[in-house]
Amino acid sequence: MSWITLDKIKKLQEQFDFVQINESDKGFHSVEVPKENFKQFVQFLKEDPDYRFKMFIDWTIVDHGQKADPRFQGVLILFSPEYKERIIVKTWATDETLPTLTDIWAGAKWAEREAWDMFGIKFEGHQNLVRMFMWETYPYHPLRKDFPLKGYEEVELPSLNEKERMDQLEGLQNYSRMHTALPTLEDLEITQKKRMPNKKSQVVLNWGPLHPGTHGTIWFLFDMEGEYVQECDIIIGQLHRGVEKLAENLNVQQIIPYTDRMDYIASMNENHSVCVAAEKLLGIHEKIPEKAKYIRTMLAELSRINSHLLWLGTYALDLGALTMFLYTFREREKIMDIFEGITGARFTINYFRVGGVYADLPYGALDAIEHFIKDFPTRLNDYETLLTRNRIWLRRNIDVGIITEEDVYSYGLTGAVARASGVPYDLRIIDKYDAYGEVEFDVPVGEKGDSYDRYLVRIEEMKQSARIVQQCIEKLRKMSKNDPFFFEPEDKKMKITIDGRGTKLFKGEVYAGADNPRGELGVYIFMPKDGIKPHRFRLRSGAFYNLQIFPKLMVGRPIADAITILSTIDPVVGETDR
Amino acid sequence: MGIKKVGLNRNVQPQTLTEKIFFLDFMKGLKTTIKHLFRKVITVDFPFELVEPAPRFRGVHGLRNVDGTEKEDFDAWVKKLKIKPPEMGETRCIACKFCQAACPVPEIFIIKAEKLDVPEDHPHHGLKVLSQFDMDLSKCMFCGLCTLACPTVCIIHTDVYDLSSYTRRGWVLNKETLSKIADDFIARRGKEKYDEKSHWPDWQKIWDDSDTARAKAWDNNPPKLGPNYADQQ
Q1: Is the N or C terminus of chain B more exposed, i.e. has fewer CB atoms within 10 Å?
Q2: Separation in Å, CA of A139 to nearest CA in chain B
Q3: Between residues 179 and 198 of chain A, which touch chain B (CB distance below 8 Å)?
Q4: From A257, A338, A482, residue closest to B143, measured CB to CB
């Protein structure tokens, strides 16, 4: 497992006497440091040649409830690319403040803004601590434990009610007239001004929130000098639904359908992350039936192909190649058909469960997948002849939006974006969850880190995914129809059900995840005691952190490059906003 | 398991001079486009042509009635929950509210059971009967957890997917509507989905392979369905 060993933590304790160790029997040991020494300590972790935790993964807050004092705890997750290890460093946020980490890792910028927005923690030294998802005049911090799940219903919105021919839905299932706070136009103007406090030139170009090129509701602000961008900022949160808050009030199997709605293009992979994390917390990940492991690996890779096909189609469409969109959607249609047949839904799938999958493959499923996979390479070849060496394509992509290796570490970029910059960071290899340890595949790695490399990496990933699917089919063919597809616990204390009723999580904490088409979706679950509902359910979204580098890449580039860079970063707003 | 380097000059060669002068890259691209000009149409002509949803498709819910294909433990459940033993054609629902418990949005359901108003010497004295079962499908995610929780395979997903309505009221379905949807679905496609004990059989197909519309979407070359596993027929 890719976690720092206890010996190494003990060595840390010898060096710094303030370090406290929280041991866990599942291999995830965390370190607790006082707030005063926190910055010095993480700086040491980043620079010391024995540790080299230079990759930023996540930086978030846990609320221990109103009665606890101190109430908030900061949780920092780091990765060491040299030793392939992770570490969790915690510190108490006394007085509801924490030192900023933005000067050590640039990626902490948005993480801290999110923590301020959701928990009201002030970060001392942050350049522009504004809200991340909500508008600037919003008065609450919704992820605090004292904020009710339904919110404070303050605005009257009678239009939602049934009014047709004075025909009221009697009492029960009608909508309430009251609604939680909504932003007005003035609120939005204040928000926009706060995000870009010192504009340099005369024109600020607004791109979005509803523009076909943004593939969702992202609002970009470009401070323009002629055709060139001087400064750029992003306002997200238009699709913020508070999945983390909802998750704190559900059992773990019920959270899975909500994650479908996050990255709705690769919902299978989102489900996978939650399953892997919860299984690791329960300590059953290694005991999942072989059949379920292979089915999950196979479908996750099919879903990756599906997601990359949509990316390829829309990316080419944005750069002016319309036919690509039609070709890739033809292939997607087949994958969707397969998903529909196996899982029951084409888009929001909810097939994986903590403990396996909810049903065995139906008759003919493997044949359909095999049929698709046999045909797929020739189709991919068609796409490549259209694009890869086309001169327009080369001109629009080469040397556009170069991400260096240093950027990857300091911004915490993951997925194809990191791999295109020459960082072979792939959870499938590092964690070897499910059947990834048993199948053969290569991790494509780019050289330069420009848009063209990101394109090539994703094309190659599709080929490798097809390879994995083929191997999974061969393995599944040899299994028996009576093999189990769901984990049956022997331990009496553990209860896992397919429908989720009564599924319990154990005390402890875990950070685990899966490699999604858009980067690492990590799930951090914190449980102070055994129970059904997770106390803190943090979703570390790959797309969120990947999008963060966009303003940096845009500086000094012409406005036309915004499309290329955004498309190759490939965020999905459902996942960035959660 | 290894690392594969990609990039210009690695696995992709830059354009040669001949390619640049004679526009060979455009020619190649056009070849692909022209090739597609002579292929058959793959677009399904909705709504004149319909793809039949897969048997597992999670569409609008239905409430199944007693039709002799109940699970073995059905009578035991009825007894346990003190429900009046249903006759042929009456609902299978035993008002256990497991669906509501499994649902991520429990406000969807309003389930009520009433005690029968019968004299004391009547055999049904003290037993209950389902009086209300409302579902507000505008709040539903179609995740399928309720159908998995149902001990009597009463609440099911059908293949109906057109849910449009002029008012929000149209999405609130009551017991009678849900029963009608289920009856209709079982009559049409019940044999594809359930075996004689209301379980999902292992011969349940991924989709109906005689569906011509689906074959069209598969490029007129649909897969031939066969068994998955070594010991499956």
Answers
A1: C
A2: 27
A3: none
A4: A257
- Taking chain A (578 residues) in consecutive chunks of 10 residues, what is each chunk's mean pLDDT? 76 79 77 86 84 88 85 89 86 86 88 89 86 88 88 76 54 67 87 80 81 83 86 87 88 89 88 89 86 90 91 88 87 90 88 88 88 90 85 86 88 89 86 86 88 90 90 88 84 79 84 87 88 88 89 88 88 87
Cβ atoms of A357 and A292 within 8 Å: the answer is: yes
Q: Measured between CA atoms, how close is B23 to chain A, in angstroms?
A: 9
DSSP structure string for A196-251: SSS--SSEEEEE-SEEGGGTEE-EEEEEEETTEEEEEEEE--TT---HHHHHTTS-
CB contacts of A445 in chain B (<8 Å) are: 3-6
Task: Provide the 10 A C-beta neighbour count for residue B79.
Answer: 12
CA A179, CA A160: separation in Å to the nearest integer? 10
CA distance A257 to chain B (A): 6
Asked whether the beta carbons of residue A164 and residue B167 sit closer than 8 angstroms, the reply is: yes
- Subunit contact B230:A382, Cβ cutoff 8 A: no
Domain boundaries along the sequence of chain B:
61-193
Domain A6-124 has CATH 1.10.8.640: no
User: What are the angstrom distances between the C-alpha of B79 and each of A116, B84, B112, B131?
Assistant: 55, 8, 17, 18
Domain boundaries, chain A: 6-124, 243-540
Cβ-contact B128, B113 below 8 angstroms: yes
Which percentage of chain B shows pLDDT scores above 70? 100
ipTM tops 0.85: yes
Which residues from B are below 8 Å from A372, CB to CB? 223
**CA gap B93, B157 in Å, rounded:** 15
CB contact under 8 A, B19 and A386: no
The reply to whether residue A443 touches residue B98, judged by beta carbons under 8 angstroms, is: no
Q: Where are the alpha helices (DSSP H) in A216-364?
A: 243-247, 252-260, 267-282, 290-318, 322-343
A473 touches chain B (CB under 8 A): no
Pick the residue of A163, A173, A374 with the most B CBs within 10 A to test the interface with B by mutation: A173
Closest by CA position to A528, among listed A552, A505, A494, A553: A505
Angle at A184 between CA A183 and CA A186, to 5 degrees: 120
Interface residue A322 vs chain B (CB under 8 A): no
User: Nearest 5°: phi and psi at A400?
Assistant: -100, 125
CA distances from B76 to A528, A533, B81 (A): 39, 31, 9
Closest Cα in chain B, distance from residue A507 (Å): 23
Nearest neighbour of B218 by CB, restricted to A167, A334, A345? A334
Superfamily of the domain at A243-540: Cytochrome-c3 Hydrogenase, chain B (1.10.645.10)
Residues A530 and A506: beta-carbon distance below 8 Å: yes
How does pLDDT run across B169-219, given as a tens digit for each residue?
A: 778 888 888 999 998 998 888 888 888 877 888 888 888 888 888 888 888
- Range list of β-strands (E), A400-498: 442-445
CATH tag for B61-193 (out of 3.40.718.10, 3.30.70.3270, 3.30.420.10, 3.30.70.3550): 3.30.70.3270
Report the residue from B56, B141, B209 with minimal CB separation from A344. B56
Nearest CA in chain B to A246: B104
